[in-house]
Design goal:
Strand order of the largest sheet: 2-10-9-8-7-3-4
Distance between the termini: 49 Å
Radius of gyration: 21 Å
Shape: globular
CATH class of the largest domain: Alpha Beta
Order of helices and strands: HEHHEHEHEEEHEHEHEEHHHHEHEEH
Largest sheet: 7 strands, mixed
CATH architecture of the largest domain: 3-Layer(aba) Sandwich
Number of domains: 2
Strand content: 5-15%
Bound molecules: (2S)-2-hydroxybutanedioic acid
Number of strands: 13
């Protein structure tokens, strides 16, 4: 039977990660996959994670199954981190998932169960795996305008116009902060207008929040998600711990289904448990347990927040260094958007051919749509990248 399989297209981000690994040039620069790297190029284990692992090793006395939706303490801690007190806890059903991608996948399946003909509106562009999973599940994808290639900001009027064509029963997928792949984000007034459009159309929002703490701060990055959750009758939120806890390979995420009142929570919770059981049974526990320990222990939490703040500021510094080096070399302000963008990524806004030229000539790896992982830079590589961009005539 296997001969009937059709070869699947490789995921572009992961294929790029592999090409980078295989490139023998020692001057190569990896701006591909979204992992944080420190000034030495290492993706470190965060101090609080190491400390929690140490405590866990000493104290944990069983690896018996948790629950189908994970340890409720993890849900409580993550709901508080993402939503604070925006909605009553009793209105939120939640399930631990294998990473943020697991939460996204379960959310799409829940949508499909609830509303088989739902269309999912996605930003143009969005994280490519959103579209890939939606296509795989056979869910109709409707792109809405988002990135303005001229300004490298958000095409807000286009976005609102497109969102107004959504109907009740449709889902609008939004990035809670640090838009991936563009780095261009909505301001607070624009979020208000998006919320108003959702209220007007009755479409259900789904928020993917994978970079909380990487943009303007933990609370600032969750502000839109909190406001939205408090303003609409129901929403889905897929949260990832991969980046802000640096536990990529532990596959730690949470899917939240928020309702306007608690009467729907039991049904939603049962649905999330069912979906977990069908897809992988119990979610991974190790990363979730570390996150719970960190979020509920004052010392570990302070240590984590301090390091996360350093990570965030280092990315902001790299952004301003790159923007000013480009300004110096090009004698123009056209790269100022790099300092305005937030999160790990910025879309340079150039062609796939130019991206390929940067890779071939300079060993600079960015995703084909010209998404750069800003955290892949350091003080040495910022001038190299800036020169390559200007020399290429971008
Ligand atoms: C990315 O966008 O690079 C990350 O979210 C990693 C991934 O799985 O694609």
């Amino acid at each position: 039977m296997f001969e009937k399989l059709m070869a699947q297209p490789a995921d572009k981000i992961l294929a790029l990660m592999q090409s980078y690994r295989e490139d023998p040039r020692n001057t190569k620069v990896d701006l591909g996959v979204g992992v944080y790297k420190d000034a030495t190029g290492l993706t470190p284990i965060m101090r609080a994670v190491k400390a929690a692992e140490h405590q866990l090793w000493e104290r944990q006395d069983s690896k018996v199954y948790t629950g189908l939706t994970g340890d409720p303490a993890f849900s409580d801690a993550m709901i508080a981190l993402v939503l604070d007190d925006a909605v009553p806890r009793g209105n939120v059903a939640a399930a631990a998932t294998p990473g943020g991608t697991g939460a996204v996948r379960q959310a799409f399946e829940m949508i499909q169960m609830a509303q088989p003909d739902a269309r999912v509106f996605v930003s143009d562009p969005t994280w490519p795996n959103h579209i890939s999973i939606l296509n795989y599940l056979g869910i109709e994808v409707v792109p809405y305008r988002y990135f303005d290639n001229e300004t490298r900001g958000v095409d807000f009027n286009g976005m609102i116009e497109d969102l107004k064509t959504a109907r009740k029963g449709d889902v609008v997928l939004l990035h809670g902060c640090c838009h991936n792949p563009t780095g261009a984000n909505l301001n607070s007034a624009e979020w208000d207008a998006v919320i108003a459009a959702l209220q007007e159309t009755g479409a259900t929002p789904m928020i993917d929040i994978a970079y909380q703490g990487f943009g303007d701060g933990l609370d600032e990055d969750a502000a839109a998600t909190r406001k939205l959750a408090a303003s609409v009758p129901e929403c889905l939120i897929a949260a990832s711990c991969s980046k802000n806890f640096g536990i990529y390979r532990e596959r730690t995420g949470l899917l939240m289904a928020v309702s306007a009142d608690s009467s729907a929570t039991a049904l939603n919770q049962g649905t999330l448990a069912f979906l977990n059981r069908q897809n992988f049974s119990f979610p991974p526990d190790h990363g979730a347990r570390l996150v719970t320990m960190i979020l509920t222990d004052a010392t570990l939490r302070a240590n984590w927040q301090a390091e996360l703040e350093d990570v965030r500021k280092s990315m902001l510094n790299l952004r301003s260094q790159l923007a000013s080096e480009l300004q110096r070399l090009s004698g123009s302000d056209r790269f100022g958007f790099l300092a305005q963008h937030r999160g790990m990524f910025s879309r340079l806004g150039t062609t796939p051919e130019m991206v390929e030229k940067l890779r071939a000539d300079h060993g600079i790896y960015m995703v084909g749509d010209s998404r750069m992982n800003i955290a892949g830079l350091n003080a040495q590589t910022v001038p190299i990248l800036a020169k390559a961009i200007v020399d290429a005539g971008i």
